[in-house]
Amino acid sequence: MYSMINNPEEKPEELALDALFKEFYDRLVYFSLQLVRDQAQAQDIAQDAFIKYWQERDYVLANKVAVKNYLYSTVRHASLNVIRHSKVVDDYLLQQGTDEPEEHSIMDAIISSEVIAELHAAIDALPENYRVVSVMSYLEGKKNQEIADELGISINTIKKQKYRALELLKVSLSPELFGVVLLLDTASF
């Protein structure tokens, strides 16, 4: 499944689980959060999905796609169960005229969490100064002047660093995802 350098104290299965957790936990929390709208519940659901996977790992195919599908499916079902049993959410959903999220909104949530994860990975790969400015601008939604004031550098430096970061992101991201970054960029002016 995942190959890693063996630590004599840890078993290969545990290392593989750790790698899975590092790769998918944030995505699963984000996916669940879009459904349950509660950070703590979303984190619990994502953690429970890994526990359930660990307990049932012998019944899940040992390839990345099967494990990913299993985890997303587990989080989806657990999130929907939380929605069904939460009075506050039930009242909200009744006011909205629906009993549970539509199937396309669930797919949108999965896609959105994957896009966010890919965007974070691309930004994390940027050089330090570009990364800091990009996070503040594209992920935190801060305006150029706010970033300049916070970092104590000129607004022209911010603009240059954003431009250079965009050039690097253009190379590393798909055209569609780069388009999302450009949309985020226009929102920060």
Write up what this structure looks like:
Helices cover 78% and strands 0% of the residues. The chain is built from nine helices and no strands. Residues 1-8 have low confidence and may be disordered.
Summarize the structure.
This protein has helices at 12-36, 39-56, 64-85, 87-96, 103-124, 128-139, 144-151, 155-172, 175-187. By secondary structure, the protein is mainly alpha-helical. The protein folds into 2 domains: 1-102, Rna Polymerase Sigma Factor, Chain: A; 125-189, Arc Repressor Mutant, subunit A, CATH 1.10.10.
Brief descriptors of the model:
single chain; 189 residues; mainly alpha; Rna Polymerase Sigma Factor, Chain: A; Arc Repressor Mutant, subunit A; 2 domains; 0% strand; globular; disordered N terminus
Please report the total strand number as a whole number.
0
pLDDT averaged over residues? 81
Q: Can you tell me the CATH class of the largest domain?
A: Mainly Alpha
Uncertain segments? 1-8
Task: Profile the largest sheet.
Answer: none
Helix and strand content put the structural class at mainly alpha
Give the topology:
Blueprint: H1 12-36, H2 39-56, H3 64-85, H4 87-96, H5 103-124, H6 128-139, H7 144-151, H8 155-172, H9 175-187
